[in-house]
TrEMBL record:
Record-stated family: Belongs to the SHMT family.
Name recorded for this polypeptide: Serine hydroxymethyltransferase
Domain Serine hydroxymethyltransferase-like, first and last residues per copy: 6-379
Organism name: candidate division WWE3 bacterium CG08_land_8_20_14_0_20_43_13
Reactions mediated catalytically: (6R)-5,10-methylene-5,6,7,8-tetrahydrofolate + glycine + H2O = (6S)-5,6,7,8-tetrahydrofolate + L-serine
EC number: 2.1.2.1
């Protein structure tokens, strides 16, 4: 990407530096990924100039002939990819999608049963700091103390006691698969709606590498995590709830949709239907297992006993540090992770006890088990010796060398890969030309 001819060099030189950081860093934040250049190109189009409040065929402004076709294509592709009757592709973000669902289904004061924030729930599922926690009655479920895993019989008992109007499944940091069908059965038993928020695992789900979610009344998902599309979200449901959902998105919580982003969502849905995407999703899982193995063999404790998804959660308390210190030590070596609360947290949200690591972004770059083994060993050394600046510098050099072998969006100009070393499994469609 060459921004050198842009007139606003103040902003474009910062953009260039950020792109270089993404290229030279080891991105292990599980909610981040590298969208393809096609997705990025769709986002950067004059579609952004257009106002299109409403829905295809029912807009409040003129001039939506092509926009309607784009949004319809995105809707059709989303329905086909996820197996639902109806898709709303307008939500600007995962939080807004959840907000719209709650507005559509509940009255203020109704009860929501969702995963506790410390156990992996998302803010928009009922945190007291979020609108959900302020306007709705929140009950929560969590993992068992000994296994740090969900016990669905226990969840059923809580549901029967609390009798919520809505049960939310899905998580932001639970490393094991969510059994969406089982939660759906529990919701039916107590007469509640079931919202499956599959934001983190959507890419795995559409590739058939995760428990299915089609039994949920409503599914929300971000489009930018394992699904590898633009930042944004969608809502899926069957026909009975379609009108309610559409009205809740617009005019309920949003105004004009971002049609450039909707076009990019359509591109990502097409990419996710390709056979290569299944291979990608499987490699995410293989890499997460390899990373978990390496971390465990290098004396780190993994929450929930490991992973069967794209992410792992490391408990850093045995090392005498907190997640804040841990992520800083990693960042000094160009390894990006995020500090995270863990179940039965004893720290604070700013200094929690965990570090969350995921493999979607590095898998997009073409890294495999061998690289995960090496990265796991680096992470362990950095966390065990988090004050060792010489070690941080040494690993940063080694990490940069590794990232140079796996270019994305074309390598940074100062560090082109050596000939013959390039490994980009998803081909040039994923990166629009590599180097
Ligand atoms: C499960 C889940 N739902 C919703 C969201 C919110 O998405 P956004 O940041 O797009 O609002 C996230 C983001 O981390 C998430 O992990």
């Amino acid at each position: 990407m060459d921004y050198s001819k842009e007139p606003d060099q103040k902003i474009f030189s910062l953009i260039e530096q950020e792109v270089t950081r993404q290229q030279q860093g080891l991105i292990l934040i599980p909610s981040e990924n590298y969208a393809s250049l096609s997705v990025i190109r769709a986002m950067g189009t004059p579609l952004s100039n257009k106002y299109s409040e409403g829905y295809p065929g029912k807009r409040y402004y003129s001039g939506n002939k092509f926009i309607d076709q784009i949004e319809e294509l995105a809707i059709e592709r989303a329905k086909k990819l996820f197996g639902f009757d109806h898709a709303n592709v307008q939500p600007h973000s995962g939080s807004t999608a959840n907000q719209a669902v709650i507005l559509a289904l509940l009255k203020p004061g109704d009860k929501i049963l969702s995963l506790d924030l410390n156990h992996g729930g998302h803010l928009s599922h009922g945190s007291r700091l979020n609108f959900t926690g302020k306007f709705y009655n929140i009950a929560s479920y969590g993992v068992e103390k000994d296994t740090e895993q969900l016990n669905y019989d226990h969840l059923e008992m809580i549901a029967k006691k609390e009798m919520p109007q809505l049960i939310i499944s899905g998580s932001t940091s639970y490393p094991k698969q969510f059994d969406f069908d089982r939660v759906g059965q529990i919701a039916k038993t107590v007469g509640a709606f079931h919202l499956a928020d599959i934001g983190h695992v959507a890419g795995l789900a559409v590739a058939g590498k995760h428990y299915p979610c089609q039994s949920a009344d409503i599914v929300t998902t971000t489009t930018h995590k394992t699904l590898r599309g633009p930042r944004g979200a969608i809502i899926l449901c069957q026909q009975e709830l379609a009108e309610q959902i559409d009205r809740a998105v617009f005019p309920g919580v949003q105004g004009g949709p971002l049609e450039n982003i909707i076009a990019a969502k359509a591109v990502c849905f097409l990419e996710a239907r390709q056979p290569e995407f299944k291979i990608y999703a499987q490699q995410i899982l293989d890499n997460a297992l390899a990373l978990a193995k390496s971390l465990t063999e290098n004396d780190l404790r993994l929450v929930s006993g490991g992973t069967d998804t794209h992410l792992v959660l490391v408990d850093v308390r045995p090392l005498g540090i907190d997640g804040q210190k841990a992520t800083l030590a990693l960042e000094n070596s160009g390894i990006y992770a995020n500090k995270n609360v863990i179940p039965f947290e004893t720290g604070t949200p700013f200094k929690p006890s965990g570090v969350r690591l995921g493999t979607p972004a590095l898998t997009t770059r073409g890294m495999k088990e061998k690289e995960m083994e090496k990265i796991g060993s680096w992470i362990s050394q950095l966390l065990h010796q988090s004050d060792d600046l010489t070690l941080q510098k040494k690993i940063k050099e080694e990490a940069t060398e590794l990232t140079n072998l796996f270019p994305v969006y074309g390598a940074p100009r100062a560090s082109l890969p050596k000939a013959g070393k390039r490994v980009v499994p998803l081909g040039d469609t994923a990166f629009g030309g590599g180097t």
